[in-house]
Specification:
It is a single chain. This protein is an alpha+beta fold. Among the domains are: 63 residues, MutS, DNA mismatch repair protein, domain I; 66 residues, 5' to 3' exonuclease, C-terminal subdomain (DNA polymerase, domain 1), CATH 1.10.150.20; 144 residues, Dna Ligase, domain 1, CATH 3.30.1490. It is built from 15 helices and 12 strands. It has a 5-stranded mixed beta sheet. Strands 9-12-10-11 form a 4-stranded antiparallel beta sheet, with helices on one face. A 3-stranded mixed beta sheet has the order 3-2-4. Strand 5 and strand 6 form a beta hairpin. Helix 4 packs across helix 6, helix 12 runs antiparallel to helix 13 and helix 14 runs antiparallel to helix 15. The structure holds a DNA duplex.
Length: 423
DNA sequence: TCTGGGGTCCTAGGACCC
DNA sequence: TCTGGGGTCCTAGGACCC
């Protein structure tokens, strides 16, 4: 048993809705002459960069996302190369979200082109799962002009894996109880979270299919891969074992970081160019912080050299910021300290994290003071545990002082501890 | 093949505190 | 002079996803 998070006692009905060749399909809406042709979205054929999306016609030639554009051009010379249009995709994504909202109040956009719906208990409104899915399909086409695929299962994992099997433009329902049989013949790579590295490790153990994985001892997986191994064992059975998958659908989590980065068209060692780039990236990050009303405490520089070696260097500020100048100065300091002078740079990036919504200095100090008091109390408790009740006098004295503080400023009492433990 | 940009989560070591 | 056990925070790197 993986005991950390109890599985729901009832059977859930989860939909995973995945838009088909999303970026390509959106481009086709704007230029119908692209329809049916080999199309590559992401940039021009001679540019530095990778494929964001490929049409099904282009995929026939082996082109796939994340492939370098130049490689795609060699494999499929007749392909039409299109620059990406993020605003168009965001706009369409909102339309998708709206359509999905008419089917369930519990909708969660997992990325720009896919979503989870908890459809548990919607039978009276929408009928059985397959009927609801076909209705969704039609309403999606009518509302957005786009095709999607729908996977249905008792967990997020099963829904996600089955939507991939349903592509393109299909629906696949995995009947409750048949999860393991459905997964068994699939490549381990089909399990979300199993990438190239984990695949190699599993192959070394003779594990190629999910069925092979399911027949391994859970304890062996745990020994070999730690926390991940345990989750993996559950996934082989179709369970949302551990991590993000185990969360309720629609419980939206705020952003944890905001970043921008830039890859030069040609590598360069020109300092003034680097500082100008860092300035621009800092401005972009700061603007988004202000838009989302976040203040960031940690600023990170990302630096990639010509040979692709990449370093990150971070610094936490005494008080959080959303100002261009403060971010830029931090990132410039980090850059000056860490750049191997004269070495050619390929990419620069700026990231902000450790968000608070309260920039207020006074509140922050109060928070720190309170934290120290909490620490002191906890320390006293530990002392008491160790040395017995004779040391309780110390602890009581502290509690007294703490109580006074609470009366001074009752509003600031509630714990700001947000344990992000999802396992 | 010559490798984008925007994210999330996990691990591991060291500093620091009690 | 040597000896512990925990906890939290910070930082760096890496796997993975779309």
């Amino acid at each position: 048993m993986s005991a950390a998070v109890p599985m729901p006692a009832f059977t859930r009905t989860i939909f995973h809705v995945d838009m088909d060749a999303f970026f390509v399909s959106v481009e086709e809406l704007f230029d119908p002459s692209l329809k049916g042709k080999a199309v590559v979205v992401g940039g021009q054929r001679d540019e530095r960069g990778v494929v964001s999306a490929a049409s099904y016609a282009a995929r026939k030639f082996g082109v796939h996302s994340a492939m370098p554009l130049r490689t795609a051009s060699k494999m499929c010379p007749q392909a039409i190369f299109v620059n990406g249009h993020p605003e168009r995709y965001r706009e369409c994504s909102e339309k998708v979200h709206k359509v999905l909202g008419t089917f369930s109040p519990q909708v969660e956009m997992a990325s720009i082109d896919e979503a989870y719906l908890d459809m548990t208990g919607t039978e009276r409104l929408h009928g059985p799962p397959l009927k609801a899915a076909h209705a969704l399909h039609q309403r999606m086409k009518a509302g957005t002009g786009l095709n999607c695929s729908v996977g249905i299962g008792t967990s997020r994992l099963i829904a996600k894996v089955s939507s991939a099997q349903a592509k393109p433009n299909g629906v696949l329902y995995i009947v409750p109880g048949e999860e393991a049989q459905f997964l068994a013949p699939l490549d381990v790579r089909e399990i979300p979270g199993v990438g190239k590295v984990m695949e190699t490790h599993l192959h070394a153990l003779g594990v190629k299919k999910v069925g092979d994985l399911a027949s391994l001892e859970e304890s062996e997986l745990a020994d070999r891969f730690g926390k991940w191994g345990l989750a993996l064992a559950g996934k082989a059975r179709g369970e949302d074992a551990g991590g993000w998958f185990d969360t309720e659908v629609g419980a939206d989590v705020g952003a944890k970081s905001i970043s921008h980065e830039h890859t030069y068209n040609e590598d360069t060692a020109d300092v003034s160019q680097h500082e100008a780039t860092l300035m621009r990236l800092s401005e972009m990050v700061a603007r988004r912080l202000r838009e989302s009303q976040f203040h960031a405490r940690t600023i990170q520089l990302k630096l990639r050299y010509k040979d692709f070696t990449t370093i990150t260097r971070a610094h936490s500020l005494p008080s959080p910021t959303q100002l261009d100048t403060e971010i830029f100065e931090q990132v410039r300091t980090l850059f000056r300290k860490n750049w191997k002078k004269g070495a050619q740079i390929r990419l620069l990036g700026v990231q902000a994290s450790a968000f608070t919504s309260q920039p207020d200095q006074i509140n922050l100090l109060e928070g720190n003071r309170q934290q120290r008091w909490k620490d002191a109390m906890a320390a006293a408790d530990r002392l008491r545990d160790k040395f017995g009740e004779s040391s309780v006098g110390l602890a009581t004295g502290m509690r007294g002082s703490f109580r006074e503080r609470i009366h001074e400023n009752p509003a600031s009492l509630p714990g700001k501890k947000k344990k992000t433990d999802k396992s």
